Every structure is written in structure tokens, then in C-alpha cells.
Amino acid sequence: MKILVDTSIWSLALRRNSDLNRKEVRELLQLIREFRTIMIGPVRQELLSGIPDRKNFMALREKLRPFDDISIMPQDY
């Protein structure tokens, strides 16, 4: 089963000083290892819009590239 991970969990895990012992971060890392994470455009946009530095923006964009993007439709809202 694929898991849609919310922005807050990605943000927590991607912080420079992220605590790898936090339950949420450990679970996300496990999902990534199992290729079970998916992403939607709004989550990707929220993560990237919080990066003011172009170099860091490009690095994060590359890190997020491997994660499948699923389409969302108006009825999903």
C-alpha cells in the first residue's frame, strides 16, 4: 500500500537538525526504504516554497524528484 505523506512530516524529516530518533522521522524513512511514499503537487509546492535560497531549493527539488506524484481531482477535495 502506498502512503501519502503530509507536508509537516516531510518538513520535520528534511530539517538540517532533524532528530532521526523521532517516531515520525523513523517511520518516514522506513516508508521511503520500502518505496511506499507518494506525493501530491500541493505538498511538493509547500515544501519547495519554504526554501528562499536557490541552491537549497534546487537540492531539495532533486531529493524530492524520485517520489511519485499522484494527480488529484476536484472531487478529492
Question: What are its keywords?
Answer:
77 residues, mainly alpha, Rossmann fold, 51% helix
Determine the CATH topology: Rossmann fold
CATH architecture descriptor? 3-Layer(aba) Sandwich
The percentage helix is 40-55%
Order of helices and strands: EHHEHHE
Q: What's the gyration radius in Å?
A: 13 Å
CATH class: Alpha Beta
Strand content: 5-15%
Q: What do we call the CATH homologous superfamily? A: 5'-nuclease
Widest β-sheet, arrangement of strands: 1-2-3
* Count of distinct structural domains: 1
Describe the fold and architecture:
The protein is mostly helical. The protein has helices at residues 7-14, 23-33, 41-49, 54-64; strands at residues 3-4, 37-40, 68-70. The two termini are 21 Å apart.
Tell me the layout of helices and strands.
Blueprint: E1 3-4, H1 7-14, H2 23-33, E2 37-40, H3 41-49, H4 54-64, E3 68-70
Parallel strand pairs: 1-2, 2-3
What's this entry about, in short?
This protein has helices at 7-14, 23-33, 41-49, 54-64; strands at 3-4, 37-40, 68-70.
